[in-house]
Amino acid sequence: MIVLDGQPALSAFRIERLNHALARDGGRCVLRSAHHVYLVEAEACRDPDLARLCEILEACPESPRQNTLLVVPRTGTISPWSSKATDILRGCGLPVRRVERACAFVVEPMPEAGSPAWLAIAAALHDPMTQSVLVERSGLQHLFEMGDALPLERIGLEQGAIAAITAANQRLGLALASDEIAYLADSYATLGRDPTDAELMMFAQANSEHCRHKVFNAEFNIDGEDQPLSLFAMIRNTHKQSPAHTLSAYKDNAAVVAGASAQRFFAEPDSGVYSARGEATPYAIKVETHNHPTAISPFAGAATGAGGEIRDEGATGRGGKPKAGLCGFSVSHLRIPGLPRAWEQERPLPPRFASAYEIMRDGPLGAAAFNNEFGRPCLGGYFRTFEQATDEAGLRRGYDKPIMIAGGLANLREAHVEKRMLAPGDKVIVLGGPAMLIGLGGGAASSVVAGSSSEALDFASVQRDNAEMQRRCQEVIDACWARGDANPLVSIHDVGAGGLSNAIPELLNDSSVGGRLELEAIPSDDPHLSPMQIWCNESQ
């Protein structure tokens, strides 16, 4: 591994802000500086040109400093920065397998590693959902280590199906209800075989509240009287009563509304020359939430919320063009450090949840960063705080689990509003970044009571943002819809909650066909992944 020192990582303003936080926690330590450290793994038997590598990264050979605390990407993950930077270095002709970026914080005086004072400093300087702190510098050598591939696991039912599936439900964080566990037990009894972990994880994501809206679609009564419409049916009723100008609703990744004739500017498919052409331009509209990930890791959660909504627009019909976005946040009282308010009573949060202040400090930046890096402006949004005491002693209601809303608009071509039916022989293509252990079980994780899942499952459920890779995918979609009647896309679906295990079955089910899938053909950056993890991760 090649280790290089880079440029300063934080502005004077951010260092001052962190020092305020350290002083507020009662510590006597001062953050003096912070700089990037680049970790480069070369391809086997090939050493990159060190001078050229330093020039591109604006770095120099490492000179270890005293009193340094190293923050690295969380072990077992690959950061979005790494995905982009590795491709750039390879494009420059350097034989690099992977490059990662750490941050070295110089703190004086530095407490003993593992002491309460050291732990307080580490907590202030890193996000445990996406980063790790190294106690010793030698830990850098293990950052790129990958183990052997994990096997497909079978859940043995011989000692009792209900008990075995219940245990797997707890261990894997499937958020299955008792009736769903009974349904699975009966189904595998009929099949006469044991389930695999891939099948149970797939069922849990597809059947989660996040994906199937079981509460919204449930029958309910008020004061003992059955109601004629479910909550979702009430929402749909507006369109049912006033369907004018709606071309597609409640059946695709976004709704589509008839638009006026407009001049659209895009490249001719054969010549690549940009020109304007006037045509009817329907537009897609979409709003969705990304609450649980934003509560766990505000920047990454809000960023991937924006990214998921953008993908929904691009995957509408036979290909859309995202144009403008919005984001919004509902949180509990802010409790701004150093600015107490009489109505803001201190109280504990669910385990691993960020505070309202941290969410509003980092979440909007995450949403804006993804929009900007993708190349779509985020033009509007909202922000509100709410917390209210109830008549019950000690009970307060508020948005401890925040609402993070991402929305936007996209253009489509009129002939591409409706998806077509798949036919035998059509190709199923997975377009995007490689698989990695990111966002595993995110759909189910959002369906459990806040703070009730384990730390490991919360860590696994957080996704990672890579707007640059998503932009590449959008360029492919743009090249397809620009061909007009020759658009090769038959149908398209975004990869979100549940990963491929949700997206591909939905794509096939919409056309009432099956498919043959080769997991070994899925690009992966982690040879340690099991079949279940490749099939169900949400690395997008």
Provide a quick synopsis of the model.
33% of the residues lie in helices and 20% in strands. It contains 17 helices and 18 strands. It has helices at 12-24, 50-57, 80-91, 116-125, 161-172, 178-191, 197-206, 209-212, 231-241, 291-296, 298-314, 356-374, 442-445, 455-461, 467-481, 500-509, 531-536; strands spanning 2-8, 30-42, 60-61, 68-73, 96-108, 131-134, 221-222, 225-226, 246-248, 255-257, 261-267, 274-280, 283-289, 321-331, 378-385, 387-389, 396-398, 403-411.
List keywords for this structure.
540 residues, alpha+beta, six-stranded antiparallel sheet, six-stranded mixed sheet, 17 helices
* Overall spatial form: globular
Strand order of the largest sheet: 3-1-2-5-4-6
**Percentage beta strand:** 15-25%
User: On the 0-100 scale, what is the average pLDDT?
Assistant: 88
Query: How many H/I helical runs?
Result: 17
Helical amount: 25-40%
Poorly predicted tracts of residues: 445-449
What is the CA–CA distance across the termini? 28 Å
Which structural class matches the secondary elements? alpha+beta
What is Rg? 25 Å
Largest sheet: 6 strands, antiparallel
Kindly state the number of beta strands.
Answer: 18
